[in-house]
TrEMBL record, chains A, B:
Coiled coil: none annotated. This is MarR family transcriptional regulator. InterPro entries: HTH_MarR-typ, MarR/SlyA-like, WH-like_DNA-bd_sf, WH_DNA-bd_sf. It comes from Bradyrhizobium hipponense. PANTHER family: TRANSCRIPTIONAL REGULATOR SLYA, TRANSCRIPTIONAL REGULATOR, MARR FAMILY. Transmembrane segments: none annotated. Residues 12-144 form the HTH marR-type domain. Keywords: DNA-binding, Transcription, Transcription regulation. SMART domains: HTH_MARR. The lineage of its organism: Bacteria, Pseudomonadati, Pseudomonadota, Alphaproteobacteria, Hyphomicrobiales. GO terms for molecular function: DNA binding; DNA-binding transcription factor activity. One of its GO terms (biological process) is response to stress.
Length: 147, 147
DNA sequence: CTTCAATTCTTGAATATTCAATATTTTCAA
DNA sequence: TTGAAAATATTGAATATTCAAGAATTGAAG
């Protein structure tokens, strides 16, 4: 009897692949909804993080929205042009830039939130309440265990 | 008592975000290992799919490795230059191109597989056998329910 | 105090990805 | 059989991302 070897297991059985596939699919669905407002997913994340009204530095934001630093800078440039957010130099540490959400940004963010909630509800329906919360729990713990 | 509103839930509680975060982290780890051979994750996936020795069309491959069509074409161009894979026109349908893995590709694929297995084992250790298989199960079912 | 290393953000060039258009072949209806 | 529509892959231009270098500020050791 041959020993089952991991080396030959199909790509579809790898955790990394399943994560990529699921992420891609869910992200695609979310993109589709947010495109109603013409906003990419990352911009929604940025608005959402800033919507606590506090200033957030670029470094902080980059971590929170899963973008690397230069990419974030350029995306923020666009959002500033669209007057969704604005920059303020941190008075306590002038290397830093604090980002704030504008009123226009807040209005947009509310619309986007409700589109996103639509999606989550759609997932809950087709995938189930129990599976969803269990999946979230497992993902959180995976992320934890990776640090 | 205020009704708990999903609209204000922090971004970190959204399934889409947790998936993105987990995917990013696991992918980063895998990238790190594969970089020992100087190969991006997508190329490993391509080699792995082709390593069944059968010819696979570009469309098929694009679906399997989660790349869109033009991106795949250009990545395959690079891999052909590196003589890891080669193109053959499908004799049954000359619109199609069948991709095959070369001997050099096979050798590289074996090395990459063992690097990837290293990672999976590392995950099993820190995250646990049970959680891992449960997570995989849930991801598969999420992907299923999204079609 | 001064200077040197570390931190934070931005910029520009190199690279990669995507969108739209194109070329080729097949399918299928008239 | 012919001609129009669909399927498949590639190309080139437009966009976006990344890497490496740079500018500004802070921290901290001497």
């Amino acid at each position: 009897m041959a020993k089952p070897s991991k080396e030959n297991s199909p790509i579809t059985e790898h955790l990394a692949y399943l994560l990529a596939q699921a992420n891609r699919e869910i992200n695609r669905q979310l993109e589709l909804r947010l495109s109603k407002e013409g906003v990419p997913v990352e911009q929604w994340r940025i608005l959402k993080v800033l919507s606590d009204g506090n200033g957030h530095s670029m470094g902080e934001l980059a971590g929170a929205v899963l973008l690397n630093h230069p990419t974030l800078t350029k995306m923020i440039d666009r959002m500033v042009s669209d007057t969704l957010v604005y920059r303020v130099q941190d008075p306590n540490d002038r290397r830093k830039v604090l980002m704030f959400i504008s009123d226009r940004g807040k209005v947009l963010c509310r619309k986007l939130n409700s589109l996103a909630v639509d999606q989550e509800e759609h997932i809950l329906e087709s995938y189930g309440d129990k599976s969803t919360s269990e999946l979230k729990r497992l993902l959180e713990s995976l992320i934890d265990s990776s640090n």
